[in-house]
Amino acid sequence: MFKVKSDQGYIAVFDGIKRKTLVHGEQTLMTEFLLKKGKILPNHSHPQEQTGYLVSGKTVLFIAGEEFEVNPGDSWVIPGDAEHSAKIIKDSVAVEVFAPVREDYLP
């Protein structure tokens, strides 16, 4: 699968938090998140492993009871079923890969 960059297709997940599935295969799915300063991604979990990279901005991630300050160029892995949340410090863009594919994120 190949996709060309587009400003279309974002879905509001929470107030100030949007996501767009970029591409997916049989085993992985890549998503871009647009995150607004001051917003909170509520605590949640899912069975998929989640690997991320902060393109721009600044966030604080809370993963399984640990707190991480995240700056552009930083990356992370959240194990499947681990409780996690985020506090958005500056407008941010993050790219994350989920494995296996999140069926609820398929276009």
Any chance you could write out the topology, listing elements then pairs?
Layout: E1 11-14, E2 17-24, E3 29-35, E4 40-44, E5 49-63, E6 66-70, E7 75-78, E8 84-99
Antiparallel strand pairs: 1-2, 2-3, 3-8, 4-8, 5-6, 5-7, 5-8
Question: How is this structure best described in words?
Answer:
The protein has 107 residues and is mostly beta strands. The protein has strands at residues 11-14, 17-24, 29-35, 40-44, 49-63, 66-70, 75-78, 84-99. Strands 1, 2, 3, 4, 5, 6, 7 and 8 form an 8-stranded antiparallel β-sheet that branches. It is globular and about 35 Å long. The model has no long low-confidence stretch (mean pLDDT 97).
For the structure shown, list the relevant keywords.
single chain; 107 residues; mainly beta
